[in-house]
Amino acid sequence: MLRFFIKNKKALFNRLYDSYSERLFLLVLRYVVSQFDAEEVLQRGFIKAYEGLDHFKYENEKATLAWLNQIMVNESLLFLREQKRMTFSDDSEFNNRSILLVPEIECKLELESCLRLVRNLPDGYRTVFNLYVIEGYSHKEIAKKLRISESASRSQLTRARNTLKQQLKSLDYEGELIG
Amino acid sequence: MKANLLDDIFTKNLKNQTKTPENIRFRKDRIYRCIETKINERSNSKWQFAVAILILTLFSSGYWHYEQGKMIRYQCNELNRQQNLIVSITNDSEKEIASKNILADSLKMMRDQFNIETKIVRLAPLPTIIVNQPIVFKNTKESEHITIRYITQYKTLKKEEIKLPELDLPVVYESENLANNTMETAGSSSFSKKINKLFNN
After folding, report:
1. pTM
2. How far apart are CA A20 and CA B82, in angstroms?
3. Is the ipTM of this complex over 0.85?
């Protein structure tokens, strides 16, 4: 019985790994710059998922992916906290949405370029940008997750956006992508 | 220049992407093997921990049972030895003294061997109930209640030991009774007529 249960659990885990591992690896790469570190975080996350499989109830693909995403994000943040890489400055002066306006050429950015740009950001900026823009967390949730103030979260996001915009300008994507 | 939201561009490109870019190598099998090894290690460590606890529990309970058994065996042996010693003594007074001494010795040995705190307490003498003798309850004037004691010791008396209690009952003489009856019957009219008739005849 136990053997059957373990076998079944392992089969389910294998299916999850086959279906979502690559996607989750990309997610982790957005938070953790080093590929080796990303692999380590992915392993930790999947071990957590394996342990949580006893209470896991399959509803649909979206819910499963959301559950796995949550695990990976938490593991990434934990890893960054362990490495003591994240530094946040409490500065609320950067709260201007007009800064989001970027030239038309940026629409031609692809996954590889976007990922490279995001990974070039400092750890604090990158984490807040990922959590807010990509995962869709609110500043309140981010502040709670990262144990910082909401204003710090806002300033980090604004700084991240500024840096991205400067990077885009300096890299001259128009020439690279079109020309 | 068309206005685009920077966030939208990154969200569109990075969210729900399923394929890694060419410049990044995703070593799926290698990572899987690492995960599998770690899971097995964790699972084994859990089992090992559970087995270790089980063994420890079994060992401690076994040891406790062994110690208890040892003590009981020692007590039984000691009791047999004492009984044999007491039985071998024929004189009653010597027997009593011996049994007391042996009991004290035994307690001392137990205390020394098992490191147990013992205290000798003198018990009150137990009441003796004689079985094959009529029991007489004496109802005293001080108390109207009859106190019943627990039977704690039984003693069967020999025939020669049995003493019948002297009961404080009223003494009735047969002649007086008869006289009384005669007096009562003499008072009746029919009886006097019968007497007169007898004398006349």
Report:
1. 0.55
2. 81
3. no
